[in-house]
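note to self: dont lose this again. the chain is below, predicted strucutre after it. 406 aa total, dont forget to put it in the shared folder this time
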Amino acid sequence: MSASSVAALRPGRGVPLPVAEARERSVRRRVGLVWGLLVLNVVGYTGALVHVPGAFGKALTQGALPVAILVALTINRKIVVRPNVFLCLVFLLAAEAFVTVTQQKFGTIYRTFRMAEFAVALWLLTPWWGRRDLLLVRCHLKALAVVLGSVLLGVLIAPSKAIGSGRLIGVLWAVPATQVAHYSAVIFGVTAVLWFCGQLPGRVTLVIVSTAGIILLLTHTRTALVAMIAALLVAGLSLIAAKARVRRLFAAAGAVTAIAIMTLSGFLASWLARGQGSSQLTHLTGRTAVWGPLLAFPRDKFQEIFGLGLSNDSFNGLPIDSNWLASYQAQGLFGVVVCATMLIFLLALAYFQPRGVQRALALFLVTYCLIASFTEVGFTGPSPYLLELTLAASLLVPPAATRNPG
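---
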């Protein structure tokens, strides 16, 4: 059999498949595997319904990152990377972390090298940026769907643990309510934007957004809800002049919102308050109690500029719960400026893009991350937020030249 006649078989059908198409399918699968491993790495491990030794669980999630790099090298053997400003900024964060690493404990050193590995994995995926088939977006949706699937399975297996506290959490694989809300909000918003642009049929969209919306409401997480609504508004406005369905949807949503405010204002206020008093709401559920002492903590000039090194985003044993203050704590004013530059760059880049699905998706993701950053952490280290900003950056570049990086 000659080389030109070699063909792969379509799974389960026995139909010859051209070599180029078979290779492309294999590449797509491995890109999806790499992205899934990156998501597994940032989800982390804090426990599971079935007892798993903590060391094994952490090894599974932390080991996903080097495995992701190895898999990425199987499809990018020539180590082809696309120059881009966004990942240069991510690299700056990783490089800056090494400035303070020599005087830190093992945990900080490990997190610094993990950040460098994470940046390397993202660089290796750059040949697949800008694809018109939205490959990385679909990979992200599938990975988040697996996480939410485990949450729903946990509700079926142990409902008292999953929703017994009044907020839906993952119990099969421990996922806090805030993370569950984040994943469901992103799935909801990305799916809605794809429907705005005619990329998904209405019935499929309805099933996905209904499921994600119910999960989001069950988590009782205000940040994710507000960020999703604002991000959808920005993404929709970017399409409103070009898409009639967006104009109709916005008109209907406006009418429904007005009726809901007039008739259900008491219920909505009660749901948003989550039983908390005005003092708790003013102090953002205790978050501001950490912010003041963090800012008042004595630092020398070097620490003020470059921070104290990457940590677990806590201060005096309490979570910081603000990307900007966590960035200041870990990487000083330098980290804060780089984080702000990342967001400004992506918003400016999106402004100059033509209207369409890629621009709308990027605007949704950047706006969501921007709003959530005030009460969530994630830009200065491997996190779902950094993955989603990378996803936004990948949507705002032209397709790569038709060159096989393998």
